[in-house]
Design goal:
binds zinc ion; about 120 residues; rod-shaped; 3-stranded antiparallel beta sheet
């Protein structure tokens, strides 16, 4: 194995180790999207009908895939705070997994070339 090949493989392993570290510190993880909205209740005389600032909420809906189906559920503002972090983490980890796959492919191609 050439010196250059060894370096490519070593660098890929270093990047994989960095990916491990980045994933290791992740705690909460959720897929999907979080939507916050305010609503009008429709009760006669309620200020929400005419005053946008008097609308009720915010209410938070979390949409995510479960067993291949998109499901929505209402979450509390406190839950929404954690979900926001969990969803950001999910996107970060997804990107890291793609990077991990890329580095693995690089190692396979370098260490085990097709034509050898
Ligand atoms: Zn109202």
């Amino acid at each position: 194995m050439s010196r250059r090949t060894e370096q490519i493989i070593q660098k890929a392993h270093t990047r994989i180790a960095a990916i491990h570290d980045a994933i290791h510190v992740v705690d909460y993880l959720c897929s999907g999207t979080l939507l916050g909205h305010r609503t009008r209740c429709g009760k006669p005389g309620c200020r929400c009908a005419t005053d946008p600032d008097a609308r009720h909420g915010p209410y938070y809906d979390w949409g995510h895939m479960r067993a291949g189906k998109l499901v929505h559920r209402r979450v509390s503002p406190e839950q929404a705070v954690v979900l926001r972090i969990a969803i950001a983490n999910y996107r970060k980890v997804r990107k890291l997994l793609l990077d991990w796959e890329k580095e693995t492919e690089r190692i396979i191609d370098t260490e085990l070339p097709r034509n050898s």
